[in-house]
Design brief:
The complex is a heterodimer of chains A (about 300) and B (about 240). Chain A is α+β, with helices and mostly antiparallel strands and about 300 residues long. Chain A is built from eleven helices and four strands, in the order H-H-E-H-E-H-E-H-E-H-H-H-H-H-H. Chain A has a four-stranded antiparallel sheet with strand order 2-3-1-4. In chain B, about 40% of the residues are buried. Classes of the chains: A alpha+beta (about 300), B alpha/beta (about 240). At the A-B interface, helix 1 and helix 7 of A face helix 3 and helix 4 of B. Bound molecules: adenosine-5'-triphosphate (ATP) and magnesium ion. Magnesium ion binds next to helix 2 of chain B.
């Protein structure tokens, strides 16, 4: 009784016993592993860039270095106003504000202590330039123009540096998308090749099925079923390995709680997307198996 | 009414000027003309190598003629799409000379294939396959893997697989070659029963006894040609 029940599920093409299965399983698992890592890198760069972007969009800080000579209060004011009007006249600037000594004191307190008397220190003056919503600067260009107007003022190079970094991050993101596409095509190709080889191996059985009236779809469905399972099992393994590595990386980098790398965190949404890789790979491998059979049978017999 | 009256005058297989050739070898059969009426019963005879299996393969649509036209169920197979060919094949039952069972499957699963291809439910399949396998006296070997069956058992599995679908055309290549006489008689009875229900039957055989005993017309292959030898007595 039980045997007859099991017999029901014997597929006519003995795909389970095939030697190429291991090849397919390993290559799927490795592909999905790589895919999950590169996808995570892509996500990390995206969230890093968007957090950098936020800190740039808010506005920028301009430093006005104290003069080496002693200046009168009027002279001091003239220096300051020159820079303020430089920014005021620019397109996209909402507001320019001098950061008060109180605030500077607060910012510097980690280094100088709460009660430092900064009035007597050669501390630079700081301007906070707020940009209009959605406006940004080409930091490098503005910076060099500022240098001509007032050589003693400089844009906080945090922003310049971030903008440069963002440009390379964008290039890296493109690169990772490209790697994802390569991994995907390699997987698709090995799947197609495995299906093609398997059809040759089982040519005799397939011919018998055809003579008994099986359509190409009937044959393709058996391969699709195998594709679904192999795709799922192997990609679960690949994803688990990927998760392991990612958890290790995020564990190691959690020590580096600094602004830059700290923003390279995977959100829950990102983890969720990576966890969707197995079902997505399974469906993809099912569809690809099906289409490969249809394509090959049309040519072969 | 009309259809019934015409049963024996409705061509089900029709061949004009058909040639069969393998690769660059000389023709096996040349300029064949053959019309088989619906519900007819023929033996297919000829020396070994005369082309019996080749002619049958063309009828079960595994071999395309190298020249000429083949019409089956009124469709020109030269123009049929892959899916249309599959649909035609589902109406034909075949017993291969070398059985061509799926050796890794049980007798049960082999006989079930045509039904599964048709998308029949497993419960109905079970009922039909068990019934037929016990009729060919294989109920005890039902779950045996085919590679472990004897030649005669394999042959009966092959025949069961060919008739399970109640085909409109039954093509059998030496179907009684490996079984003992009792079973051979029983199998012939099965073919005759199917024929009475309307199945067109062609049986390739070398057996003079079979031909003499059952007395059906012969399609005789000789010198790359074909001639019909009528039945000596009226068919029973
Ligand atoms: N696949 C093939 N490739 C090349 N030649 C073939 C092929 N099949 C059959 N032949 C040749 O075609 C000829 C007819 O073979 P076929 O099998 O049709 O004869 P047959 O009448 O069935 O013989 P038998 O009674 O021995 O079964 C033979 O000469 C054979 O060598
Ligand atoms: Mg033969």
């Amino acid at each position: 009784m039980k045997k007859a029940f099991l017999n029901r599920y014997h597929s006519e093409i003995p795909l389970k016993e095939e030697k190429s299965n291991l090849f397919l399983e390993v290559s799927t698992a490795v592909s999905v592993f790589l895919f999950s890592i590169v996808l995570a890198a892509y996500f990390m760069m995206t969230s890093m860039v968007s957090s950098w972007n936020k800190s740039i969009i808010d506005g920028l800080t301009v430093q006005i270095m104290p003069s080496s000579e002693a200046l009168t209060a009027d002279e001091e004011l003239l220096r300051l106003n020159k820079v303020i009007s430089f920014f005021d006249e620019r397109d996209g600037v909402e507001k320019v504000r001098v950061i008060s000594n109180e605030q500077i004191k607060h910012i510097m307190s980690p280094w100088l202590g709460e009660n430092a008397n900064i009035e007597n220190l050669p501390i630079p003056k700081l301007l906070d330039v707020k940009l209009k919503n959605g406006k940004t600067f080409d930091y490098q260009k503005v910076s060099s123009e500022l240098k001509e107007v007032a050589s003693y003022a400089s844009i906080d190079n945090h922003g310049i540096w971030l903008q440069k970094l963002m440009k390379s991050a964008a290039a890296l993101k493109m690169l990772s998308l490209f790697v994802l596409a390569v991994v995907l095509s390699a997987l698709a190709f090995s799947l197609f090749y495995a299906v093609q080889t398997s059809l040759r191996v089982h040519q005799n059985i397939i011919e018998i099925l055809h003579i008994m009236g099986a359509t190409d779809n009937y044959v393709a469905k058996q391969y699709a079923k195998r594709g679904l399972w192999t795709g799922f099992i192997s990609s679960v393994i690949g994803t688990i390995l990927g998760f392991g590595v990612l958890i290790m990386i995020s564990h190691l980098s959690s020590g580096l709680e600094t602004g830059l790398i700290g923003s390279a965190k995977l959100s829950l949404w990102h983890w969720g997307t990576i966890a969707l890789l197995p079902p997505m790979t399974a469906v993809l491998s099912m569809i690809l198996s099906f289409l490969s059979v249809k394509q090959t049978l049309g040519k072969m017999m | 009414m009309e259809a019934h009256k015409n049963m024996l005058t409705e061509p089900i297989i029709d061949m004009y000027n058909v040639c069969i050739r393998y690769g660059k070898d000389p023709d096996v059969l040349k300029d064949i003309k053959l019309t088989l009426q619906k519900g007819s019963f023929h033996f297919l005879t000829g020396k070994s190598g005369a082309g019996k299996t080749s002619l049958l393969s063309m009828m079960y649509l595994a071999l395309k003629p190298s020249a000429g036209t083949v019409m089956i169920f009124g469709s020109n197979i030269g123009y049929a799409s892959r899916d249309a060919m599959a649909a035609l094949r589902r109406r034909i039952g075949v017993v291969f000379q070398d059985f061509r069972l799926l050796e890794h499957l049980s007798a049960y699963d082999n006989v079930a294939i045509p039904l599964r291809i048709r998308g029949m439910g497993e419960n109905e399949i079970k009922k039909r396959v068990k019934e037929l396998l016990s009729w060919v006296e294989l109920d005890k070997s039902m779950d045996k893997i085919c590679s472990t069956l004897s030649g005669g058992e394999k042959q009966r599995v092959a025949i069961a697989r060919a008739v399970i679908n109640r085909p409109e055309i039954l093509l059998a290549d030496e179907p009684t070659g490996n079984v003992d006489n009792d079973i051979a008689v029983k199998l012939m009875k099965l073919f005759i029963e199917l024929n009475k229900l309307g199945t067109t039957v062609v049986i390739a055989t070398h057996s003079k006894e079979l031909i003499a005993e059952y007395n059906y017309p012969q399609i005789h292959l000789e010198n790359k040609g074909l001639k019909i030898i009528p039945a000596l007595r009226r068919a029973q």
